[in-house]
């Protein structure tokens, strides 16, 4: 979770929230009510020079902003896919505060919106958890916007674990020491206090806070963030590898990020990205040698 690139009918699982004409005709429905799990991606409106800047270089600022939009669209798709298998409602907890129009333009109507603009990243996360619970969901989850290939099965497992009786949290650790997902049944303020955000200590410190308040934590498998060149390299490999015949919710099978794949094919044809990545590495090595 990266604070730089974040801040009435009845259905099977409860009441159905609809927004706009597309929702009214049944194509997009957001489930809410007792027993449902609200999952919100921490989303920042795409703008060159303000989003995914850690990927510049090898990307340009325009490419990084376009990649941010593709990630958001693919994560929304992943949430809607997971909702076919568990009682999940998808949200985008967005920043900056005047960017609601951007998200309504790129995300499907079934994805609800939460204004999560706060000065401190921990406050953004806590406010999002509080708002999801206030909207009537039995549990609330915050999700990063840097993992477009996160296995759908992890989202389903999160909702299922939080639906079980008793207090608990669910944490999805990132390979960099942070977390890509954190879910709760109750909004515990302490879990977001005294955390060194954007460091390799975030997950460990969060687990410490959970121990302090006696909260059991279910830990998901480790996954990765695409917030540096190595993450981008791994993403490239996943996007271009042959698709598996396994189900979308089968174990650790990565979610196929359709929009991200289309963007990469359009921008980086004929191995252009690999060439740029190598040029960037050589420039880094030269700079390190000069120092």
Task: Report what the structure shows.
- The chain has one domain (9-18, 36-285): Spore Coat Polysaccharide Biosynthesis Protein SpsA, Chain A (Alpha-Beta Complex), CATH 3.90.550.10.
- 44% of the residues are buried.
- It is α/β, with parallel strands linked by helices and 291 residues long.
- It has nine helices and ten strands.
- A seven-stranded mixed beta sheet has the order 6-5-4-7-9-8-10, with helices on both faces. A three-stranded antiparallel beta sheet has the order 1-2-3, with no helix packed on it.
- Helix 2 packs across helix 5 (152-162) and helix 2 (61-82) packs antiparallel against helix 8.
- The longest helix has 22 residues, at 61-82.
- Helix 3 links the parallel strand 5 (88-95) and strand 6 (112-115).
- 38% of the residues lie in helices and 16% in strands.
């Amino acid at each position: 979770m990266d604070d730089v690139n974040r801040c009435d009918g009845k259905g099977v699982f409860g009441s159905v929230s609809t927004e706009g004409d597309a929702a009214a005709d049944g194509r997009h429905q957001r489930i809410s009510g007792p027993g449902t799990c609200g999952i919100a991606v921490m989303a920042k409106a795409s703008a060159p020079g303000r989003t995914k800047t850690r990927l510049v270089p090898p990307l340009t600022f325009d490419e990084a902003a376009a990649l941010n939009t593709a990630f958001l669209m693919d994560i929304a798709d992943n949430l809607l896919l997971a909702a076919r298998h568990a009682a999940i409602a998808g949200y985008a907890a967005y920043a900056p505060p005047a960017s609601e129009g951007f998200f309504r333009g790129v995300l499907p109507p079934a994805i609800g919106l939460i204004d999560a603009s706060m000065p401190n990243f921990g406050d953004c996360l806590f406010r999002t958890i509080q708002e999801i619970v206030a909207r009537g969901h039995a549990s609330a989850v915050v999700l990063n916007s840097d993992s477009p290939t996160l296995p759908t099965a992890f989202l389903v497992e999160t909702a299922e674990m939080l639906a079980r009786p008793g207090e608990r949290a669910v944490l999805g650790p990132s390979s960099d020491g942070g977390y890509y997902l954190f879910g709760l049944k109750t909004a515990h303020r302490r879990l977001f206090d005294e955390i060194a955000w954007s460091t390799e200590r975030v997950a460990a410190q969060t687990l410490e806070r959970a121990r302090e308040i006696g909260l059991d934590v279910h830990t998901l498998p480790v996954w990765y963030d695409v917030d540096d060149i190595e993450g981008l390299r791994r993403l490239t490999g996943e996007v271009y590898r042959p698709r598996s015949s396994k189900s979308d919710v089968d174990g650790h099978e990565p979610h196929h990020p359709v929009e991200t794949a289309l963007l990469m094919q359009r921008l980086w044809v004929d191995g252009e990205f690999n060439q740029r990545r190598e040029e960037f590495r050589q420039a880094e090595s030269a700079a390190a040698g000069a120092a």
